[in-house]
Amino acid sequence: MSVLKQIGNTPLVESTNLVSKPNVKLFLKLEGNNPGGSVKDRPAYNMIAEAVKRGDIKKGGHIVEATSGNTGIALAYVASLFGINISLVMPENATIERVKTMRAYGAEVVLTSADKGIEGARDVAFNMRDQKGYLLLNQFENNDNWKAHYKTTGPEIWRDTNGTITHFVSAMGTTGTIMGNSTYLKEKNSNIQIIGAQPMDGSRIPGIRKWSPDYVPSIFDASKVDQIVEVSQDEAIAMTRRLAKEEGILAGMSSGGSVATALKLIETLDEGVVVAIICDRGDRYLSSSLFE
């Protein structure tokens, strides 16, 4: 079977050490088990496959996209399997593992100013589209981003919890994960609560964003999120380390932010079935200070 057929159907495991309330269960969706190592495999495949289906891009064509890392890795290997060239634009402070992985898959990597962050990378990607005629997938405005989760992640969570899920928790970056899952899960049961994790002012958590007004993803619909919980960088780091030591789950900082948010929520619950997204694997952060 093709590698692409291995995207999705990731494990949903129950936390064994983080929750002490007998009537509250916390399940963790291990998206690092996707072939490219993150939740972004799903939208990367869907965005490229749908673009090919529409005729927006053909074999031998060229895609450009801004990324903070995981989407770029996923797009790099998916594009290579479709025979499509790709340029990925990302801030220069990205971990070296991410840059090398993208290049290993055959992508061109364009590094931009760390001071301007992902917003600056998005500006450069738009310029490359305009100047070179590349196809910009624009995950921040691309409905095929959130629809990937509507078609796959949401149904998997509903199936694997036997329809008992009461709360869904996710980090918010492009917001595709939370939008797609919210849309599907609310259709199944409108009482399911959707909680988004957002960084506190001054906190930098890769994969979680608090966008300035001009850059808020157009795919984001605030009515589909019941509650936004702010999480600090220190909380995200501490929980990421706890996940490794107490749950045997080596993940990135955005996953720590997601689970820290879930535990804040659980403090307010007497009963419930909470599902939190583990966004990626932690091995692509080993060159950083995350686990030091």
Automatic annotation (TrEMBL):
Modified residues (N6-(pyridoxal phosphate)lysine): 40
Annotated CDD domains: CBS_like
Gene3D superfamilies reported for this sequence: 3.40.50.1100
One Pfam family from the record: PALP
GO MF annotation: an example: cysteine synthase activity
Residues spanning the signal sequence: none
Keywords (A to Z) from UniProt: Amino-acid biosynthesis, Cysteine biosynthesis, Pyridoxal phosphate, Transferase
This protein's pathway: Amino-acid biosynthesis; L-cysteine biosynthesis; L-cysteine from L-serine: step 2/2
Major enzyme class: transferase
Binding-site residues, pyridoxal 5'-phosphate: 70, 173-177, 254
Catalysis performed (reactions): O-acetyl-L-serine + hydrogen sulfide = L-cysteine + acetate
GO terms classed as biological process: cysteine biosynthetic process from serine
Coiled coil: none
UniProt xrefs under InterPro entries: Cys_synth, Cys_Synth/Cystath_Beta-Synth, CysM, P-phosphate_BS, TrpB-like_PALP, TrpB-like_PALP_sf
Residue ranges constituting the Tryptophan synthase beta chain-like PALP domain according to the UniProt record: 4-280
Keyword Membrane included in the entry's annotation: no
Name of the protein this chain belongs to: Cysteine synthase
Biological source species: Olleya namhaensis
